[in-house]
Design a protein that fits this description.
The protein contains five helices and 14 strands. It has one domain: Thrombin, subunit H (Beta Barrel). It is globular and about 70 Å long. The strands form three sheets. Strands 1-2-3-6-5-4 form a six-stranded antiparallel beta barrel. Strands 7-10-11-14-13-12 form a six-stranded antiparallel β-barrel. Helix content is 17%, strand content 36%.
């Protein structure tokens, strides 16, 4: 392992440790839906021209990082393909720096399969302390139940400021409802408004000690909608006088665009766990 790699990894670890420590006071004073562990282990990731979200989990005393595979493959829709290279270098936004500062990290790659929009990244050594780990799994997730998803929409986050004068980059938190589970494809369908940049972010159910990650954001389903402009005849509202006979040319010319339907597509975290258990690579944690 090169000195350069050790130095930059140590810098990222220091920055991440700071965000976990700074997060503690805010959690004690609130009954927040999203825990300190979730906020402190979710980061912005950049690969080539793509930006998205990445988060860290522990499985059997090893650290793994999870994100959406299409960020690496460039696929715009399913199938998302396979990431064939055994390693990848991505850049992670340093949470403690006020300006956006990117820290490159090299990971080994575990690919859960070509039809799964998840990739598991394995660091050469642990980047995060063991404090406030995330629990994972889809068991017990209720249909119609509340959920939250975290991420960095449009390649940006927000700064959380503390009484100490320090500040950190945090992901945005959005609400969703569990709508359906398509077990054959490992897909969870959620009701909520997703935005570009949330790809790779964790989907959470429960709160406090019962909170766990059950899915990874992939994208959203679109639906066609008519474009309404100043030349489009709009039906009158209740009680209004009827319009004059509409211009046939105006009513027949319609432009269609695809818009966000409100259905979020996420892939089950179980696919990542299965892949990890089949190939449990990565260094075992030492006490931190």
């Amino acid at each position: 392992m090169s000195r350069k790699f050790v130095a930059r990894s140590a810098k990222l670890l220091t920055a991440i440790s700071a965000i976990l420590v700074l997060s503690i006071p805010s959690a004690r004073g609130q009954s927040a839906q999203v825990t300190v562990g979730a906020l402190g282990r979710t980061f912005m990731v950049q690969y080539k021209n793509e930006r998205g979200t990445i988060f860290s989990i522990d499985v059997n005393n090893r650290e793994y990082w999870i994100t959406a595979k299409h960020i690496l493959t460039g696929a715009k829709s399913a199938p998302f393909g396979e990431y064939d290279s055994p390693t990848v270098t991505v850049s992670i936004l340093s949470p403690a720096d006020e300006v956006q500062k990117w820290v490159p990290e090299t990971f080994s790659v575990i690919d859960p399969g070509k039809d799964i929009d998840i990739v598991v990244l394995v660091p050469q050594h642990a980047l995060l302390p063991t404090k406030d780990p995330l629990t994972v799994g889809s068991k017990g997730v209720a249909f119609g139940g509340d959920c939250e998803f975290l991420g960095f929409p449009y390649g940006g986050g927000w700064r959380a400021h503390w009484a100490t004068g320090q500040s950190v980059w945090y992901p945005y938190v959005k609400h969703c409802t569990v709508s359906a589970s398509l077990e054959d494809t490992k897909i969870w369908v959620l009701d909520g408004i997703n935005n570009v940049g949330f790809s790779g972010g964790p989907v959470l159910s429960g709160t406090g000690t019962q909170q766990n990650v059950f899915a990874v954001v992939s994208g959203y389903h679109t639906e066609p909608a008519d474009v309404v402009d100043e030349n489009t005849d709009v039906p009158p509202g209740p009680g209004a006088a009827p319009n004059s006979k509409p211009d046939k040319e105006k009513t027949e010319k319609k432009e269609i665009v695809n818009v966000n339907s409100g259905f979020i597509i996420a892939y089950s975290i179980d696919a990542a766990i299965d892949a990890i258990q089949k190939n449990p690579i990565g260094p075992l944690r030492t006490s931190q």
